[in-house]
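# nightly structure sweep
# worker-07 picked up a monomer target from the shared queue
# config: single-sequence mode, recycle default, output format = structure tokens
# input follows
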Amino acid sequence: MDYDEMIDLINAYIKQFKIDVAPAISNVEKYGWEVLGDKIDEISDAHKLDFIGQVFDAGYVTDEDDYNFVQNFLNEFNFEDIQQVLFNELAAFPSDAIKAQQEFSARLHDKHSATLRKWNSSIDMFKSKNYPEAGNDIRQSLEFLLRDILKNKKSIENQTKGSDILKSELGRYLKEKEINQENIRFLTNIVNSIIKISNEKFKHGEPIGLTEKDIRFYMNETYLVMQRMLDIEGE
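# output follows
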């Protein structure tokens, strides 16, 4: 991770979860991990763990320098109360990731077979670095799942379209499931962001301007939305 990535990541996290702290800003007198450490020191232990976990999950920590960066700010800011928990989680991460994918596949297998086929294809395309196809398969995975759950054949765009989010196909379904309005809007906005990225970056060839890490993040966000929709379906 470079200096700007560190600052962008923590600021995006602060904004996403509406944490009541000021954004991190560049400081030429400090290393990136020091700036990041200062800001992480201001958030709760639960958010510290969640943020670091998301950084690993999205693939930003990939080499020895990055692991040293994590160790640096943990040591510098004496997060003794969370260090052991964190490193236990990191040690278990590879097996947990495999287990999570297996559980996800099992959830899709019986009722959402078309979604499962597309999702498995997206993983294969991503591994082979065929990013346009990976992006399209990721989008179609979500599209097929929404069609199954909402019991229609509409495109993903038309599932969230309406004079108001609450009047869209997705909004009405979530309201019937007694999901509160704030969470309906939150979930629908994420779906709309997935649609926007898909339309702008994957429909017309190579996703110019997106790195492998960006595409992995897009994939992770779609995965989380699908997991949430499966949870709601089962409630």
